[in-house]
Amino acid sequence: MTETLLKLTDVRKHFPAGRGASVKAVNGVSLEIRRGETLGLVGESGCGKTTLGRTIVKLYRPDGGRIEYGGQDVWSFDRKQNLDYRKKVQIIYQDPYASLDPLSVVSTSIAEGLNIHKMYRSSKERHERVLELLRLVGLNPEHANRFPHEFSGGQRQRIGIARALALEPELIVCDEPISALDVSIQAQIVNLMMQLQQDMGLSYIFITHDLSMVKQISDRIAVMYLGSIVELAPSDMLYEHHCHPYTQALLSAIPIPDPETERTRKRILLQGDAPNPTALGDSCDFAGRCPCATDKCRSQRPALTEIEPGHWAACHYSQAL
Asked: Quick one: which of 40, 23, 76 has its CA closest to 226?
């Protein structure tokens, strides 16, 4: 069995919303990320995908649960262990322009981590490493002395990837890295990331709302709704035999590049409103929008349960779907 690289157990992250209330952005997530795999994380905007990713890279401190790296809670690390963790777990941000310092040339942005962690013996060696990284992501050495505004969106995202690779990480959290790019550029970036994974043995958490693209890059896919994982399965299994009504609705929204099929296929349109994220109770969070909901769903929260090997779903009636 593939080695577990990172393990999340009942991770929670809540944000205060005034008058004693809190938004449960991440509400009891348990996951394992395996070495060398890509875990796709999908769901509607606001479901907590980015918050979970930022909690994993320690930009947010969780309000509960445990994140383990190498079998040890990352929030119990001493200074040396923490520095090593920040080298091994990196992030690629959604907006490639906002994530780069507009007043610094590209080489400075990429070399920042190398300087902080005192990697390589001299500034010359660090600069050579920067040029190597630029070549690795498909850019030219002369790009090193240009500013972010001089690049296209796709080129800026390549710079973001180079910066994430600089510290030789094992896991990269990819926070919607293609959503701000043109469709043709999206394919180039995804192909680049897949090639880098193969060459360097990387693990990815690929956060996206693009369900057609996530199937191409992911080994497993986790579907997130209002801070919780509602379904988790290998990529092909999820698309062929999904077992949660929310997953069904998401997959039915994927456009099909065939006019005849697209006109005749049945879309699942969710009715009702999502519950208030500050007032999630003991019921199923999806019950108010689910066409299959019963009194049991409105009174009892379903647990994430393995319904077949490797396939998990949080639905009382997942076997019937």
From this structure: 23
Express each pLDDT in 151-194 by its tens digit. 999 999 999 999 999 999 999 999 999 887 888 888 899 999 99
| b/e burial code for range 177-207 (CB count within 10 A of at least 16 → b) | bbebbeeebbebbbebbeebbeeeebbbbbb
Q: Do the Cβ atoms of 298 and 287 come closer than 8 Å?
A: yes
Region of residue 228 (phi > 0: left; psi between -120 and 50: alpha; otherwise: beta): beta
Radius of gyration of the chain (CA): 21
Calculate the alpha carbon distances from 318 to 42, 229, 295, 297 in Å. 19, 14, 16, 12
Read off the pTM: 0.92
Q: How many residues does the chain have?
A: 321
Residues contacting 20, CB < 8 A, separation 6+: none
Among residues 230, 238, 203, 219, the alpha carbon closest in space to that of 4 is found at 203
Residues 6+ apart with CB under 8 A from 102: 147, 148, 149
Sign, CA torsion 59/133/70/49: positive
In the block, tokens 């005849």 appear at 260
